[in-house]
Amino acid sequence: MAIKLVPPAPSAYSFPLLIKHLLLTPMATAPEQVITYQGRVRHSYREFGARISRLADGLARLGVESGQTVAVMDWDSHRYLECFFAVPMMGAVLQTVNVRMSPEQILYTLNHARADWLLFNKEFAPMLEQIAGRIESVKGYVLLSDDGERPALPVEPMAEYEAMLAAAAPHYAFPDFDENAQATTFYTTGTTGEPKGVCFSHRQLVLHTLGCAAALGPAPNQGHIHREDVYMPLTPMFHVHAWGFPYLATLLGMKQVYPGRYQPEVICRLIAEEGVTFSHCVPTIFHMVLGHPGAKATDFSGWKVLIGGSALPEAVAVAASKRGIDLFTGYGMSETCPVLTIAHLTREHLGRSNEEQAVIRAKTGRPLPLVDLRIVDPAMQDVPRDGKATGEVVVRSPWLTPCYVNAPEASEALWAGGYLHTADIGNIDPEGYLKVTDRLKDVIKTGGEWTSSLQLEAILAGHEAVDEVAVIGIPDDKWGERPLALVLLKPDYVGKVSEHGVRHYAAQAIEAAGISRYGVLLQVRFVKTLVKTSVGKMNKRLMRADPDALSL
């Protein structure tokens, strides 16, 4: 039987899902709302719209054309937000460059993406100097600067950002085009091999924005995000579009606060002065902010923080609740745009103690609307949703990347069986909450059984002396592997607790929690540092390669 299509009138507007349409509501309902950079630069949404047009007009005068790639190297700023809109709205592709990568990795991503233009903050001139002569495709550069100064540079910019905007027209006719046109690309910070390019279309970014709004807006109490919130990202804008939340904040017409480079004293000041109520970050950034001396005098009550990228220890969720912070987990990955699930608490959950709530807050949550998420065995068969049976997390939704850039074999493996494979292991409980228990590559295979490194980390994080911890598998002649906890102590406890004491604490908690008997084989080693990726995740591959190098 043939599917019957709805015949449009010849004059009907098809309304493609384009990023430019995210601006319609805020420009109509919140034109005087504020977007600020570090509290020093302030623009209304009306001015923001004009600056987007000026940026597009300025880039077009330089020669930027639809289909070309415009790369950006900047800290989180109002300029970056303008690029989030103007570049893809022109029909060009925005490449968000991970400025925390090594110069060689940055060079690889620029050349692999065939970047045509590069906008760069003058702070990255020394890094650019190391690679400028080997950049293959860039036709022109634009300088970004907080003070407008133009120092000696390794390349000759065609324009300075603010001067270019001042000379450009405040109105630009952004065209309609196919909603499946590529809007963005960026490169993963994978811990093996070269970075992989991930791309997203206008349609995917718009649907992800609407999916997040549909999940966060209707929440009746905890985790409710609305147009009167004050938004400040603490996930870099170069990383999966700051998890897509600048698009959501703009759609809702929120006040937006951009902190530049992440400095805990600046973040604390902006939370206090600008009244920030919603942020998102990985646990290490949250830990950095609350561990700063300035945090003691900062009122965090009413601050909602979505945690992702790494597991949230229950002990951290309890400590946050005591400071009045609504801390809860989300889940996704670079390839998923990224948000797939959010750990909202029900009214019944909110009636429980902080410790009981933390169990739910630390889970990876329930799926967003339009997300088809499964836990499967190696044969792609669903495992029971009983909160115990584990398998790989596989997923479908309309905003997942269709492929890696110029990597057909990796793309085929990513989508084997018609579902995107996350390489995460997890379970789903009867209430529908996903809990990721480990990465396939990080699970510890001891005595023929899997032991979750994340479970062991959560237990150790509950010890009063533990600042941060990473559990890795190390070779063992008898057991195959055994777990090793690399523990970074809080400064006040250095020299006052022993590795044996922490191990004894963990062994008792492991036995009480009913974790695999092989968990008690845990060894503990105090370290001077933990190795992390450029976005603050634990780099367990490097730590497994040479754990002795980290020891105190």
Tell me about this structure.
The structure is a single chain. The chain has 552 residues and is of the alpha/beta class. It has 3 domains: 181 residues, 3-Layer(aba) Sandwich (Rossmann fold); 178 residues, Rossmann fold, CATH 3.40.50; 107 residues, GMP Synthetase, Chain A, domain 3 (2-Layer Sandwich), CATH 3.30.300.30. The protein is 30% helix and 22% strand. It has 18 helices and 25 strands. Strands 7-6-5-3-4-8-9 form a 7-stranded mixed sheet. Strands 12-13-14-15-16 form a 5-stranded mixed sheet, sandwiched between helices. A 4-stranded mixed sheet has the order 2-1-11-10. Strand 23 and strand 24 form a beta hairpin. Helix 2 crosses helix 6. The longest helix has 18 residues. It is globular. The termini are far apart. The model has no long low-confidence stretch (mean pLDDT 92).
SSE diagram, text form:
Layout: H1 24-29, E1 34-37, E2 41-44, H2 45-62, E3 69-73, H3 78-89, E4 93-96, H4 103-113, E5 117-121, H5 125-131, E6 140-144, E7 159-160, H6 161-167, E8 182-187, E9 197-201, H7 202-216, E10 230-231, H8 240-243, H9 245-252, E11 255-258, H10 264-274, E12 278-281, H11 283-290, E13 304-307, H12 314-322, E14 326-332, E15 339-342, H13 347-350, H14 354-361, E16 366-367, E17 372-376, E18 391-396, H15 408-414, E19 420-428, E20 434-439, E21 444-446, E22 449-451, H16 453-460, E23 466-476, E24 480-489, H17 499-513, E25 523-526, H18 540-545
Parallel strand pairs: 1-11, 3-4, 3-5, 4-8, 5-6, 6-7, 10-11, 12-13, 13-14, 24-25
Antiparallel strand pairs: 1-2, 8-9, 14-15, 15-16, 17-18, 18-19, 19-20, 21-22, 23-24
Helix pairs in contact: 2-3, 2-6, 7-9, 12-14
